[in-house]
Amino acid sequence: MTARPAATTVATTGHGKALRVRYRMTPWWVRVIVVFVVARLVTTGLVLVLASVQGRNAWTGAHPDYLDFANMWDARWYNVIAVSGYPTHLPLTLDGQVDENAWAFMPAYPAVVRVLMGLTGFSWEPLAVFVSLVFALGGALLFYRLMRHSLDASASLYAVVLFCFAPLSPVLQFGYAESMQLFLLILALLLLLERRYWLLFPVVAVMALTRPTGLAFALALGLHVICRWLTRARDPFPVRERVAAASIAVFSGIMGFSWLMLAALVTGMPMAYTETELAWRAPYIGYQELLPFTPWFQSGAWWFGVPLGAIVVIALLIGFALLLFTPAVVRLGVDLRLWLASYALYLFAVFFPQSSVFRLLMPMFPLLGAVAQPRSPLYRVAIVVLFVALQWGWLLLCWGIDGADWSPP
Q: What would the pLDDT profile of 165-215 be if each residue is shown by its tens digit?
């Protein structure tokens, strides 16, 4: 065996050391942007492959281009809102029930796109994708900052990798409001961790009109105030911070109900928003009253039957409660765990689980920080590969349309 020349070994070692030094000197935000761009290229490739075999459907012709394919499903509702606004009279089905309509979708995201449409003259499709991508990049940058409150730089960057490659990350580049919601939510949680309460007011105001998060965030803020009060002996909670924290908690609760009140005021129907939301679950269980904390059991019975459905739901509740006390999740800190618990309780109270449940779980992104903590290179590569495979699975199951429409994203 011929030994490697010493000079070559030294040169190789020196080159590797130089690369490591250069990497360490690279600003964190540059690393995040690189991760984001690579992830979006991978996802775009998957989307284009699926679009190339997509048949004619209610939204597009056969083999749509990227922009058309990225603006199917609920993106059309946002498009309608941006162009025509909201109906003053709710549409009704043949049997007199409230039918699906634009009031189920909040105005902040389509309003941003509509402003850009007026300024640039471009149509909805490219601008909707552009706005989603901008907010997604902003969310990735803020997510790194958020994770640095509890994790080191390596784990924080890997958490961003998971955020960008997550199974539902295609939504970050579609005509949906999720990118904007996640950006605002990450910003709100970051301000909460830094206890900059007064800055939360404008963020919460817009966030509550982007996706339904106001009530869940109000609960998280209320629990935050209680925790700070109970621990004030070792973590001072001065009066000015008590007033600010309590005020934003109340404000978030008010904003959580604001869309319901506005829908009622415009349409003249007190339950316009909830009746509209119930229209989406009618194909599963028919038109029923909204009884808090029953939808998951109704869904469990629909999917698994009785009593197996109830057993599955109870098992999920117990499993999630135990998850919040695992060491990796505890390491994320009290406030992020309070958000996870609050949002889970909100979903459990009002949401009827079906295929869109995966998208509604996206605000639980802090859990990616727990997944990011192991340092094994093999583990980290395997999780990214798994996430990309799950992206493809979600696109096939929920986004692409093949015959019957039974799995909306």
A: 999 999 999 999 999 999 999 999 999 999 999 999 999 999 999 999 999
Residue 50, φ and ψ in degrees, nearest 5: -65, -40
Query: How far apart (Å, rounded) are the C-alpha atoms in residues 180 and 138?
Result: 9
Q: Is residue 147 part of a domain?
A: yes
Structure confidence at residue 261 (pLDDT): 97
Q: Is residue 4 part of a domain?
A: no
Task: For the beta carbon of residue 361, count every other beta carbon within 10 angstroms.
Answer: 17
Quick one: pLDDT at residue 269?
95
CA 207 vs CA 37, 60, 101, 117: distances in Å: 25, 31, 21, 21
Range of the domain at 394: 28-274+281-399
Answer yes or no: is 406 within a domain: no
Q: pTM for this one?
A: 0.94
Does 42 map to a domain?
Answer: yes
Beta-carbon contacts of residue 277 (< 8 Å; ≥ 6 apart):
104, 290
HSE (side-chain half, CA atoms, 13 Å) at 307: 3
End-to-end alpha-carbon separation of the chain, Å?
59
The rounded distance, in Å, linking the Cα atoms of 287 and 275 is: 9
- Three-state DSSP class for 164? helix
Write out the two tokens for 347.
Answer: 């979903």
Between CA 404 and CA 109 the distance in angstroms is: 29
Distance, CA of 195 to CA of 244 (rounded, Å) = 9
Q: Residue 236: how many CB atoms within 10 A of its CB? A: 9
**Number of domains present in the structure of the chain:** 1
**pLDDT per residue over 56-113, tens digit each?**
999 999 999 999 999 999 999 999 999 999 999 999 999 999 999 999 999 999 999 9
